[in-house]
Amino acid sequence: MKPKLLYFIFLTFFGFQNFSDFMKIHKEAIVIDLHNDTVQRMLNKEDISVRTKTGHIDIPRLREGGIDAAVFSVWIPPGNKSKPYFAQAKKQIDLLLNFAKKHSQQIVTAYNSEDILRISKAGKIALMLSMEGAHPVGDDLKHLDYFYERGVRSIMLTWNNSTNWATSASDETQSPAKLKHKGLTGLGKKFVKRMDELGIIIDVSHAGETTFWDVIKTSTNPIIASHSAVASICPNHRNLSDDQIKAIAASGGIIGVNFAPWFLDSEFVEKEKVIKEQNKARIDSVRSVWKGDALSREAAIARLMQKEYDKILPTLNDLVNHIEYVIKLAGVDYVGLGSDFDGISVAPKGVDDVTLYPNITKELIKRGYSKKDLGKILGGNFLRVLSEVEKRKTPN
Ligand SMILES: [Zn+2]
After folding, report:
1. What pLDDT is attached to residue 81?
2. pLDDT of residue 241
């Protein structure tokens, strides 16, 4: 019995030692998540100031995950025509800003990189606004100024649907014949230049390849892909080719690696199709209850099918493979994390929700990354881009 007991003590001691080390490094780093869709849950009246049983993010879980700043994205589902895009975006911004005001002991709106550092130092979480799809901007350049004033610091030119002046990855690849133009129009180029002037980061996640290369030619700022993964590992129209990754790095920008299983694992979509077919009747019963928004419906289906998903989901290891691919291709200065939490119905095993962010740090340490590298990957790189774009702002 004795040697066994000694072995147990040895394991426990070194296990804890290891655990406290990676938690220490994780807590000391500025950790920033570049993209979430949590505002959609807030619109459904979910109170994320307390721990919630659904979704991936709420304040207690952000704290537990050691997140210093989270970028909350304003997004209007294309089917929702109840009000103009602009009015809906305004409503979402009001909701987020009021939420931060109401819970200012825990979460504070950040407008620049200094804010993030200050808020984190005070032991609070920084909330930064972004926009997913420039549809609320419409064709009016002045709207960019308005959204900047309200605190929006990065804008994705498209979502899966194109805007009048920029085509999306979905439209460019799935329905090219329907496109009236491809890439950035003349007006699109004006928008990109105005975003550079205002200090709004251009986010190319969801943008089509033609739009992407037009942005590279037009913008003089570092650009980001807030939530995209690597096409060489998982070919998907939403993922980035090696040339795109290198071009983002050359601009001084970063790729926030997306956690969505279908962007990480090329076999996931097929496997998911099989389990969905096998469980069609169960899924249909949930579908008929959740007639409303697609995000809530998919989340409910994922909860119902948790056992089946557990067998096919990619893992933390797969996620870190994408992070490491970007590092090996472009350098450790050009990568970050963009979970897409609350916009994805299922997440990789080991990063099931935001509380498990420290597992990423643990895995990167295991793969030999230094504390300095971790500081960059976890949030330092995004801070650099943010402050660079701020510095290059041109008055008026
Ligand atoms: Zn997205």
Report:
1. 76
2. 98
Rounded Cα distance, 265 and 240, in Å: 14
Spacing, Cα 343 to ligand 1 middle (Å): 7
pLDDT value for 19: 55
CATH code given to domain 26-265+314-391:
3.20.20.140
- In the chain, where are the structural domains located? 26-265+314-391, 268-313
Ligand 1 mean position, distance from CA 291 (Å): 21
The pTM of this model reads: 0.93
Cα separation, 363 vs 369, in Å, equals 9
Specify whether the CB–CB gap between 224 and 154 falls below 8 A. yes
On whether the CB atoms of residues 40 and 91 are closer than 8 A, the answer is: no
* The pLDDT of residue 15: 46
For residues 240 and 228, what is the distance between their CA atoms, to the nearest angstrom? Answer: 7
Distance 92 CA to ligand 1 centre (A): 16
75 CA distance to ligand 1 middle (Å): 9
Question: How many CB atoms lie under 10 A from the CB of residue 349?
Answer: 19
Residues of the chain with pLDDT under 50: 1, 11-17
Sign of the CA dihedral with 73 first, then 76, 77, and 78 last:
negative
Query: 133 alpha carbon to ligand 1 midpoint, in Å?
Result: 9
Between the CA of 345 and the centroid of ligand 1 the distance, in Å, is 12
